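Data deposition worksheet. Section B asks for the primary sequence of the deposited chain exactly as it was used as input, without tags or linkers unless they were present during the calculation. Section C holds the resulting structure in token form. Section D is free text for depositor observations; keep each observation to a single sentence. Incomplete worksheets are returned to the depositor.
Section A, Depositor: J.P.
Section B:
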Amino acid sequence: MAKTIAGPEIERLIQLLGKLPGLGPRSARRAALHLVKRREQLLRPLGHAMSEAAEHVKVCSNCGNIDTRDPCTICTDPSRDRSTVIVVEDVSDLWALERAKALNAAYHVLGGVLSPLDGVGPDDLTIRRLVERVAEGGIAEIIVAVNATVEGQTTAHYLIDQLDGFDVKITRLAHGVPVGGELDYLDEGTLSAAMRSRTKI
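Section C:
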């Protein structure tokens, strides 16, 4: 059993930080030590911000984004093209697309991907809500922007099946050579996808 080197409050902070993505036990200890050393500049404001977030952050009942209002800021933005809906796995994917300013469209967050091995089925995702949104009308295109993993592709095929019969165009993100990428450094799967997704110039 590991020896306790600090009081229970600090140990609890280290344990909680260690549950964050990308932080292992060592990184969590370093982060906790940094926060404690800078208590007034970081620890107290962080604690206050986390308390505020826990109190006020909501999940949008329409698209699944997180915000302090429901419906969220994106869903209530009148400048958005509501006829196009980008379907993503998680809120982090939505944020990435927003940072890229790729398209001023609406979104739908699935909350994950289908994964029978992990016990994640259609009822665990927001697929039914997406179908309801399409059935309500006004949507001309669904862009399936899930990750290029086996689970992501399985989810994409399931979505296509669920939306069969609706008068809606279904597209997916192109997969292939990244901007600035060199062919020699790419894996075979990426090169194959790039070749299949080639476009006229």
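Section D:
The longest strand covers residues 81-88.
The mean pLDDT is 90.
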